[in-house]
């Protein structure tokens, strides 16, 4: 209580110009803290796919906004970033609309110079390249307009009982009034068809 009284007495003793300066400093401090909290992401942002033309970037952002997934443009304006924890959700949601339309770079990624790339970056690039190669192959099937492939490759283990086969999630965009029969699918594939309601 005494501290509050001291503040009150001090406030009454200072002039109008000093009060304006104090208020300005307080407002500036509040704005600075708010801006810092707003601009500091709680988790890393990652790209949803390969670089895209401007018109497709806009379509991707619109779709992500519809899905209530936070997003923002990257520094070059050719890709859209989403929180890392929601990337898979974003990719699947975009793939349902055939976005992005380009599959991205496949194994030709490794023809480019990657001097200084870490083993982790090489592993990530290899995973993306495999996914893009599979998506390209799937789009060769006649009714398929676009495809997105997400691979899940278990970590290697020396124990046979713990070994698990890789799995993949595939989202297809089909031509209107068409479907995918079992004919184009190799018998060794296990597949199921679930109507998309999104």
State the helicity in percent bands.
25-40%
Number-wise, the strands total 5
Query: What structural class should be given to the helix and strand makeup?
Result: alpha+beta
Major sheet characteristics:
3 strands, antiparallel
> Which residues sit in consecutive blocks of at least 5 with pLDDT less than 50?
187-192, 194-198
Strand order of the largest sheet: 1-3-2
The best one-word shape is: elongated
Strand content: 5-15%
Order of helices and strands: HHEHEEHHEE
Radius of gyration: 26 Å
Mean pLDDT across every amino acid position: 75
Structure explained in plain terms:
- There is one protein chain.
- A three-stranded antiparallel beta sheet has the order 1-3-2, with helices on one face. Strands 4-5 form a two-stranded antiparallel sheet.
- Helix content is 39%, strand content 13%.
- The chain has helices at residues 2-13, 16-39, 54-66, 87-95, 119-138, and strands spanning 45-47, 72-73, 80-83, 144-152, 167-174.
- A hairpin with a 6-residue loop joins strand 2 and strand 3.
- The chain is an alpha+beta fold.
Task: List strands and helices in order, with pairings.
Blueprint: H1 2-13, H2 16-39, E1 45-47, H3 54-66, E2 72-73, E3 80-83, H4 87-95, H5 119-138, E4 144-152, E5 167-174
Antiparallel strand pairs: 1-3, 2-3, 4-5
């Amino acid at each position: 209580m005494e501290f509050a009284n001291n503040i009150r007495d001090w406030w009454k003793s200072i002039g109008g110009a000093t009060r304006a300066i104090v208020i300005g400093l307080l407002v500036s401090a509040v704005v600075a803290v708010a801006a810092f909290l707003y601009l500091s992401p709680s988790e890393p942002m990652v790209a949803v796919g390969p670089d895209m033309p401007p018109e497709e970037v806009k379509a991707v952002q619109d779709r992500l906004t519809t899905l209530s997934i936070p997003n923002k443009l990257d520094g070059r304006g050719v890709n859209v970033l989403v929180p890392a924890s929601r990337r898979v959700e974003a990719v699947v949601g975009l793939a349902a609309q055939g976005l992005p339309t380009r599959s991205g770079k496949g194994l030709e990624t490794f023809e480019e110079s990657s001097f200084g790339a870490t083993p982790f970056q090489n592993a990530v690039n290899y995973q993306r390249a495999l996914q893009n190669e599979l998506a390209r192959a799937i789009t060769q099937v006649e009714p398929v307009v676009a495809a997105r492939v997400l691979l899940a490759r278990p970590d290697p283990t020396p124990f046979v009982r713990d070994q698990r086969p890789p799995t993949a999630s595939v989202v297809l965009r089909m031509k209107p009034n068409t479907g995918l029969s079992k004919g184009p699918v190799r018998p060794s594939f296990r597949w199921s068809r679930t109507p998309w309601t999104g």
